[in-house]
Amino acid sequence: xxxxxxxxxxxxxxxxxxxxxxxxxxxxxxxxxxxxxxxxxxxxxxxxxxxxxxxxxxxxxxxxxxxxxxxxxxxxxxxxxxxxxxxxxxxxxxxxxxxxxxxxxxxxxxxxxxxxxxxxxxxxxxxxxxxxxxxxxxxxxxxxxxxxxxxxxxxxxxxxxxxxxxxxxxxxxxxxxxxxxxxxxxxxxxxxxxxxxxxxxxxxxxxxxxxxxxxxxxxxxxxxxxxxxxxxxxxxxxxxxxxxxxxxxxxxxxxxxxxxxxxxxxxxxxxxx
Length: 273
Fold this sequence. Notes:
This protein is an alpha/beta fold. It has a single domain (3-259), classed as P-loop containing nucleotide triphosphate hydrolases (Rossmann fold). It has helices spanning 41-49, 72-78, 94-99, 114-126, 142-155, 172-184, 196-202, 220-223, 226-233, 256-259; strands at 3-12, 15-25, 30-34, 56-61, 64-65, 79-82, 160-164, 188-192, 205-210, 213-218, 236-241, 248-253. Strands 6-7-8-3-9-10 form a six-stranded mixed sheet, with helices on both faces. Strand 9 and strand 10 form a beta hairpin. Helix 4 (114-126) crosses helix 5. The chain is globular, with a radius of gyration of 21 Å. The chain starts with a strand and ends in a 14-residue tail after the last helix.
């Protein structure tokens, strides 16, 4: 299922946050959304969540207008979400958490069916968390919890997956595991990412945002140039082939006038007599 974002604008408290943003993500594409902090990535994803209505433009999922043509329940059957902030204070087990993903397919008071339970078992196996079904979510590591949240999204059985900085606060192995897993699902995926190297090596397409506008969009090798990275992110970049994966590799450094300053020296105190 395709994602089409056309001319989307968002204004919050009188301030323009997004200005004429257009993105197309093809069926089965893993598409990265990158940009500096405050560029509008999370705001754009909130428009696709159906949590924030644009003041201009349109968001279409599978050709249907997210706001005009789809109810909240219908939208939830088309796109699943792993948001940036998750507050899980209740003592849910992993299985109970993942069962919440079945809500769009059930009535308000409908009990969990054998099919619901089978779907949960299947997605837990898919994300490598079958062993943790009875574990309380708050006892999991960061990477394990993110896998459980991904399983909840997959339990919706939606063709579109939206990820808002899915590797935030994870260690390096957990980051790679979560991204490789999400990429392997071959769902239509739009993921807000911070790591340029991960975006370059894993994404089929990339859109770069800066101050609420699209700076470039297309294949990573066409979009991520040294000039664009310097203009948007304020760092230097060189490219190569990763010796372990064979994928495109992006290496970054501070501008030369900052890179050669070195670490600050020890504080000097003046002796008094």
